[in-house]
TrEMBL record:
Family annotation (Pfam families): Aminotran_4
GO-annotated molecular function: lyase activity; transaminase activity
Keyword set includes Transferase: yes
Annotated source species: Allocoleopsis franciscana PCC 7113
Protein's GO biological process: carboxylic acid biosynthetic process
Signal peptide start-end: none
SUPFAM superfamilies on file: D-aminoacid aminotransferase-like PLP-dependent enzymes (SSF56752)
InterPro entries according to UniProt: Aminotrans_IV (IPR001544), Aminotransferase-like (IPR036038), BCAT-like_C (IPR043132), BCAT-like_N (IPR043131), Class-IV_PLP-Dep_Aminotrnsfr (IPR050571)
Family: Belongs to the class-IV pyridoxal-phosphate-dependent aminotransferase family.
Stretches that traverse the bilayer: none
GO cellular component: cytosol
Protein name as it appears in the record: Branched-chain amino acid aminotransferase/4-amino-4-deoxychorismate lyase
UniProt superkingdom: Bacteria
Length: 266
């Protein structure tokens, strides 16, 4: 079941014309969100933030805005059956919404952490990194390559080897009493959870710094994690690189403090 162009459709097939730019070039923008308690208006769903990010990308590309009331209606319908929604907008304003379940091993990943793989080849660098476009091939390829290495996530890097983000989320590191995250200026997605966490941490008087994650910095972190709207916070206990295996504390107390912010705002 999915929603497309104003209709709730049963099945798993979407019909597009052969000259559709979304099909030909990945010319779409999308956002993926977790719906809490089946409500778009729940504070943790951050519906407005996801819509604002879509709007910003559409304005940047000069594409048509969707019928937001119709889109909201479709998202409400699907949220009754799915906790995770992916909302896609085509250049002509048509909306396409799909739903899925939470990862079956999410609780295990949240508690025990994962292994990540450093995607250092240039073909894994994202294009239009500040936007979530349908041309997500580089991140998808990085994720596939990571799984072939026995890792659950890929870490994307820039031309100098500095870490940017994972294939699905933003990076966080704890070092010497401070949280660190790469700045938007290095070419990363402005994640909804990233912004949310920065606000929460500042409210709790936790220091937060934005700085590039060069090779010297990543060796100094005590703990690292990645975040996105679906999984919240996932610790990374091991990072595989071509020359070495880096290890971090998956059970660091500051990671639990980070996770607890969701409970405080539930």
């Amino acid at each position: 079941m999915f929603w497309y162009d104003g209709q709730l459709i049963g099945g798993s097939r979407l019909e597009l014309t052969i000259d559709n730019p979304g099909l030909l070039y990945g010319a779409t923008v999308f956002t993926t969100l977790r719906v809490y308690q089946q409500s778009l208006h729940h504070p943790l769903t951050h519906w407005r933030s996801h819509c604002d990010r879509l709007t910003s990308s559409l304005q940047t590309f000069g594409w048509q805005q969707p019928d937001w009331e119709r889109l909201c209606h479709g998202a409400n319908q699907l949220s009754e059956s799915y906790p995770v929604l992916r909302i896609t907008i085509f250049p002509d304003g048509r909306e396409w919404i799909t739903g899925r379940s939470l990862p079956s091993d999410l609780a295990q990943r949240q508690q025990q952490g994962i292994t990540a793989w450093g995607a250092f080849a240039p073909e894994y660098q994202r294009s239009l990194a500040a936007h979530k476009t349908g041309n997500y091939l580089s991140a998808w390829l990085a994720g596939q390559a990571a799984r072939q290495q026995g890792a659950a996530e890929a870490i994307l890097v820039d031309a100098t080897g500095s870490w940017l983000e994972t294939s699905t989320g933003n990076l966080w590191g704890w070092q010497e009493g401070c949280w660190w995250t790469p700045p938007l200026e290095v070419g990363i997605l402005p994640g909804v959870v990233r912004s949310q966490l920065m606000d929460w941490l500042k409210t709790q008087d936790y220091p937060v710094q934005e700085a590039p994650w060069d090779q010297e910095r990543v060796l100094q972190f005590e703990a690292i994690a990645y975040t996105n709207s679906v999984v919240q916070v996932i610790p990374i206990h091991t990072v595989l690189t071509s020359s070495q295996s880096l290890t971090y504390e998956a059970f660091h107390p500051m990671l639990e403090s980070l996770r607890s912010l969701w409970q405080q705002h539930h």
